[in-house]
Amino acid sequence: MAGRIHLFIGLAMIILGCVFLLNLLVVFPASQGNAAATGVTGSVYIQQYVWRWLVQELGLLLSLILLRYQRTQSSINLVFIWSSWSLLLLPQLQASLRGQGFFDPTVWFIVYMAQAILIPVRWRIHLISQVTMLTVFTGMLVLGLQDPDLIRAANFSENVTSAVYISVGFRTLFVCFIADLGVYLYERLLRREFELRQQLRLFLHAVSHDLRNPVLGTMMVLKNLRNTTTDSATLPTTILDRMIDSGDRQIQLIDSLLEAHHVESHGIQLHCQRIDIREVATTVIHDLLPFIQDTQATIHLAIAEDTPHVIADPLQIYRLYENLITNSLRYNPPGITLTLDAQVCCDRLQLTVSDSGQGWSAHQCRQLFDLYTSGTDARQTLSMGLGFYICQQIVEAHGSAIDIVSNTQKGCMFTFDLAIATPHIRQQPALH
């Protein structure tokens, strides 16, 4: 909320300064020659206007000073109220010391609506600020204090002027009601979103503890049965292998859910350093070799040995390659060819992962990196959506973007780039 109040105060000070210069340089000089307006734009009125502007600016400046002190962070509500009073209440009190009133409903409407838009929280504080202002204005009407400039400019009688005050007062009430209602509804929406996030966190906690552990237990039993060499085994080995593969997929899906939620809530934390991208890709291929052999795929590592090093997080780049390769192998027919390549482009290293699989349609490519995307295509599964979403978050955390070029039955190619490490750079500090 402090940042929102700071923005509101800064905009208010800038707008007040611009209007002040406009009046002094354009409006007041142009009105000096108008005899009918002499009483309104004379030297006395200009002096009153300058003092009113100074009071408003000083009040807002005091609000900015209070925001900088840590002890006032707990009293942020008072800072908000004071900033509102600096714009609306202080000019009223200043006029009352002269035995006059001050009437500027346009400023009221702008201030209250701007507060509702820029600071759409804590509707009760908005209400306190508005009720105080309207109470002071009503008291000034009861005491008979009126704005002489309005009477002279519009040539109103006192009765007509009072009617105008009352009419605009009711309009101000409506504006305040709409502004407070909008803040109240938005605040309820934020509270509901927070409650839903809490429920999601509890759900994922239950998934990780109450679902993952039984699956792991079942996997241990199945693996023991598969390794049994006696005739007591009651299930064929092929069926046990399928059950074990199904359990592995369930565990991977649970882990992907937890990881995607963590990424969405906290983002990707990087520990960047100078790395050899070919070495990282080789490690991934070596670790995935059993899976590659099972799918009868061919991996072509086209990254040259003299490829420049890059500045990146080695663990996250490993996960990026691992996700892209495993998704290509898992959701394509057996026997595809995967190619990992790298080309220097200015001060960036452009990396590609392409396959000769069945590819993606244009509609699928547009939604491939969305979180929890589902579709009618059998290949669009939840685990795949999570994997590509995590890939996108890793690449964006490195200050880049991941693109896909694909046509159905012609394979697809993922492209992203990383910053090339200059020769004198050995290690970068951790990035967030």
Percent strand: 5-15%
Number of domains: 3
Shape: elongated
Report the biggest beta sheet as strand number plus sense, adding barrel if it closes: 5 strands, mixed
Q: How would you describe what is shown here?
A:
By secondary structure, this protein is α+β, with helices and mostly antiparallel strands. The protein has three domains: 2-195, no CATH class; 201-266; 273-419, Heat Shock Protein 90, CATH 3.30.565.10. The chain is built from 14 helices and seven strands. The strands form two sheets. It has a five-stranded mixed sheet with strand order 2-4-5-7-6, with helices on one face. A two-stranded antiparallel ribbon has the order 1-3. Helix 3 (43-68) runs antiparallel to helix 4 (76-97), helix 8 (158-226) runs antiparallel to helix 9 (237-266) and helix 12 packs antiparallel against helix 14. The radius of gyration is 34 Å and the shape is elongated. The two termini are 23 Å apart. Residues 35-41 and 424-432 have low confidence and may be disordered.
